[in-house]
Amino acid sequence: MSSPQEPYQPGHAGAGQQQLSGQPHQGQPSGGQQPNQFTGSGPFGLPGEEPPARRRPKLWIVLTAIGGVLLLVVLGVVILVNVAGSATTQAKGLADGFTELVIAGDSSKAYDDYLDPALQEQLSKETFIAGIQSLGLDESCEPAYDDLQVATENGVKSADIAGLITCDGKNVDLAYRFEGTNELKMTNIKLRPAA
Asked: pLDDT (tens digit, 9 = 90+) per residue, 43-99?
């Protein structure tokens, strides 16, 4: 008469439970869903559900700091290149200006405008002009700078320039040194026929 009772199993209709037609059992998915898929938002960690995005403020702080350091390094390199580049450009401009005057035969102006007063004391204007004329430079001559080095030490800028003046049938070695704090002046000069 009476049947032994089966243990209670959730999701199964027991003897005393009725299931309404068309409605799924409690805890089982509805429609054509797989048993391991859940709909809607549920607690974290259920299978098939993506975990919420994690905030990583420490990571962003570290990345921002690294980016800032890299930016400072790049700016430092750009500034260094500009400073060194402008000093090199200035030195080359001085060498070009002096050499153009000498080649054009305007040695007196080259002496007055470019030579440092200390060098002018060692080398008279007449001796300088006579030495330049002995080289026989003319409009066929073109300067080429092989070595151009600039430096700054204790606020004093210096530029050492070496090269060759190439003329029709002859070459002239050149070596100049310019020094100064604001305005660079020639402190050493060598112009002689190339060997």
From this structure: 556 677 776 667 778 888 899 999 999 999 998 888 777 666 667 788 889 999 999
Paired with 167 in beta bridges are: 170
- Look at residue 180 and give its three-state secondary structure: strand
- CA dihedral sign of residues 20, 23, 29, 33: positive
CA distance 116 to 185: 5
Residue type, 23: Q
- What is this structure's pTM? 0.57
The CATH number given to 59-193 is: 3.10.450
Half-sphere exposure of 30 (CA within 13 A, CB side): 7
Total length of the chain: 195
Q: How far apart (Å, rounded) are the C-alpha atoms in residues 161 and 88?
A: 10
State how beta strands 185-193 and 156-167 pair.
unpaired
Torsion region of 12: left, alpha or beta (phi above 0 gives left; psi -120 to 50 gives alpha): beta
Maximum alpha-carbon separation in the chain: 144
Q: Angle at CA 159, nearest 5°, toward 158 and 164?
A: 160
Contact 159, 134 (CB under 8 A): no
Closest CA to 80 of 90, 72, 69, 68: 72
**Phi, psi angle pair for 162, to nearest 5°:** -135, 150
Q: Which residues does residue 30 pair with via DSSP β-bridges, in sequence order?
A: none
